[in-house]
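Suppose you are handed a protein chain with no further information: no name, no annotation, nothing but its sequence. What can you learn? This example shows the usual starting point.
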Amino acid sequence: MTSSNRSISPWLWLGLPIAIIAAQIGAKAAGEEVYHKWMRGELGVTETLTVVFLVFAVYYAIRCFTLREHVRANLFGTFTLIMALGCLYFAGEEASWGQHWLGYATPEAIAQRNEQGEFNLHNDPVLEGLLDNLPRALLTLAAFVGGILAPLLWARNKPADFSSSSIFGWIWPTRICIPTSLVAVFVTLPSKAVEATGAQMPYLLDIAKGETKEFCLALFLMLYLMNLYRQLHKASGVTQPQPS
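A reasonable first move is to predict its three-dimensional structure. Written in C-alpha cells, the prediction is:
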C-alpha cells in the first residue's frame, strides 16, 4: 500500500495541537528557565517545529503542482504554486532566513529598522502591517472558514473531485484540519477575555499564544497540502517506482 492510500495519522492532526499546549504547560510547571529554554525563542521547540511544518507544506504544494495536469480546474496549478511560495515566505520569515541557525549578522541597514534586529521583513515597523498582520489575519480566516466551518457545515470529508472544472471540487480542507484550526483561531481568546476583566492569566496557562497560533497555522497548512496531495496522487493513478 502506497503512502497516498494511507490515512494521515491522528498523532499528527489531533495529537500535535494538544501536545504543543501540554508541552508548554509542563515546561512552565518545571520553571520559567526551563520554559524559556525549550519552548520560547527562535530555537525553541515551538518555533522550530513551525518551520519544519512549513518546509513539508512547501514540499507537498510542489508535489501537487507537478500533478496539475490531472486536475481539470485551470486554477489548480496557480493555486498550488501560490501556496508553495506563501509557505516558503512564512518559513523563511519565521527562521529569519536561516540567521538563527547559521549565525550570520543582520546587515546594518536592516538591523536599524527591524524591531528585533533580525534578518526578516515582518518586524519592520513600516512593512509589518502588510507582511505580518495581514497574512496572519488571512491565514486565521482561512483556518476558521476552511478548517472549521467547511468540514462541519458542508461535510467535505469525501474524496476531492479533481475532474470538476470548479475549484470547489477539491479546495476545501477535510475534518483532519479541525483540531489544529480550533487552536489556531481561538488560542488567544482566553487571555483576552481574562485581560478584559482586569485579571491575570494563571501562571501555568500563560503560554506563548502568538507562537502557538503560528505553530497551528503552519500545521494546518501542512495537513491541508499533505491531504490534498495524497488524494490527488491516488486519483491520478500515478504509481511510485518499486525497487527491483
